[in-house]
UniProtKB/TrEMBL annotation:
Database matches in SUPFAM superfamilies: Acyl-CoA N-acyltransferases (Nat)
GO terms assigned for molecular function: acyltransferase activity, transferring groups other than amino-acyl groups
Designated name of the protein: N-acetyltransferase domain-containing protein
Protein source organism: Cafeteria roenbergensis (Marine flagellate)
One Pfam assignment: Acetyltransf_1
Domain N-acetyltransferase: 31-203
Signal peptide: none
Length: 346
């Protein structure tokens, strides 16, 4: 659902309960459930323009969803008279088809607060449940990530029988001098900067996830990048190689911690997405963030979207080393992953 969600202000999330909405127009049940089609591009562009400060990935994402229907089930609810898209959500299959990943839930601003997201989410979850009951299909679990303050998203997860299974620190930062200075000055004196790190070869990155450091930092189970979580158990090489081949992902290490980063251009911003695994070592985390800020700048990114392991949330936030720029978010918010097992793991 929230693979797209780079940044959202809580105010962008639906706040009006259904009961408060004017009773004009068709009812939720009248909207037609159908696959997303090329005629929906315009409505999606309208939604993206007002979502996540214009950094929404919807416009580019729907092209992938429509092109690869073997992997993606992109559904929408369309107005019964005009056929215009009012709400959209995609189910994609990852982890060799074992995970149904729910993403991109959006309701057009004209139609919010009427229960459309709720209905569409139920319909898409039902698709996944039916698929998991087919012994010929590998699907065994449903997952998505969202911000921990996205109450609608969490409400829909609960209604779909999903619960929070993991969480990370999350921050969005414009790339400017202020950020570099803050990172430098927040590190403990003598702890060493990004010069201690190097870009890992594929062999080193795989060895990290499969070896004892991966266990300590939890990358032996899965890695998170750009709002998606990928199972690494038993398949670290394929996962990391796949990331590098399809997204140019780079991996950094050399100090016991581990990080990965990749570029993603959106309609108005090019962001560098980073995930840092540093257990409780805030200095290592700051070193890795600084390393990626340099990669972001080299690659023409204008913002950094950062995930970091939960143990560091307090340490890096405003009450700790105060690394993150408070004018973007007042605190350091959390991202969470919700999950529902659909079929017992053999
Ligand atoms: C989030 C979004 C999809 C909601 O769309 P919507 O069609 O207005 O949502 P609905 O009317 O179906 O409401 C969804 C559920 O959240 C509940 N809800 C609404 N506002 C709420 C709030 N502030 N707190 C808690 N629950 C809330 C609704 O009551 C409903 O639950 P119910 O069916 O059990 O009653 C829409 O606001 C949007 O596109 N936002 C921007 C993108 C985004 O945040 N997407 C989701 C995460 S990626």
């Amino acid at each position: 659902m929230a693979a797209a969600a780079q940044v959202s202000n809580a105010s962008e999330v639906a706040t009006s309960p259904k009961a408060a909405v004017a009773a004009d127009g068709p009812s939720t049940a009248d909207f037609v459930l159908r696959p997303v089609a090329p005629c929906d591009r315009e409505a999606c562009a309208e939604i993206a323009a007002v979502t996540y400060g214009g950094r929404d990935y919807l416009v580019t994402a729907i092209e992938t969803w429509m092109a690869d229907t073997a992997k993606n089930t992109a559904l929408c609810l369309a107005h019964p008279e005009t056929n215009r898209l009012a709400a959209i959500e995609n189910l994609t299959r990852i982890d060799d088809g074992e995970t149904g990943w729910v993403e991109g839930l959006r309701t057009h601003p004209d139609w919010r607060g009427r229960g459309l997201a709720s209905r569409l989410h139920k319909e898409l979850v039902a698709v996944a449940v039916a698929e998991s009951e087919d012994p010929a299909k590998p699907l065994r679990r449903l997952r998505y990530t969202t911000r921990a303050d996205n109450l609608v998203s969490l409400r829909l997860a609960e209604a779909a029988g999903m619960s929070v299974v993991d969480s990370w620190g999350f921050a969005f930062q414009p790339l400017d001098e202020r950020l570099c200075d803050k990172l430098d000055s927040a590190r403990s004196p003598g702890s060493g900067g990004p010069e201690l790190l190097h870009e890992l070869t594929m062999e080193e990155a795989v060895a990290h996830c499969e070896g004892p450091t991966g266990d300590r930092l939890s990358t032996s189970k899965f890695v998170t990048i750009d709002w998606k979580v990928l199972q690494t158990v038993g398949r670290a090489r394929r996962v990391l190689q796949g990331l590098r081949d399809s997204h140019g992902t780079v991996f950094a290490g050399g100090d016991g911690a581990f990080s990965l980063g990749q570029k993603r251009p959106d309609a108005t911003t090019t962001s560098w997405f980073v995930t840092v695994y540093a257990a409780e070592d805030a200095d290592a985390a700051l070193r890795h963030i600084a390393w990626h800020v340099a990669r972001a700048a080299e690659n023409g990114a204008t913002a950094v979207v950062l995930f970091y392991n939960e143990a560091l949330i307090r340490e890096l936030g405003p009450e700790g080393r105060g690394v993150f720029v408070a004018d973007v978010f007042s605190g350091a918010p959390k991202a969470v992953m919700v999950e529902r097992e659909l079929r017992a793991t053999e």
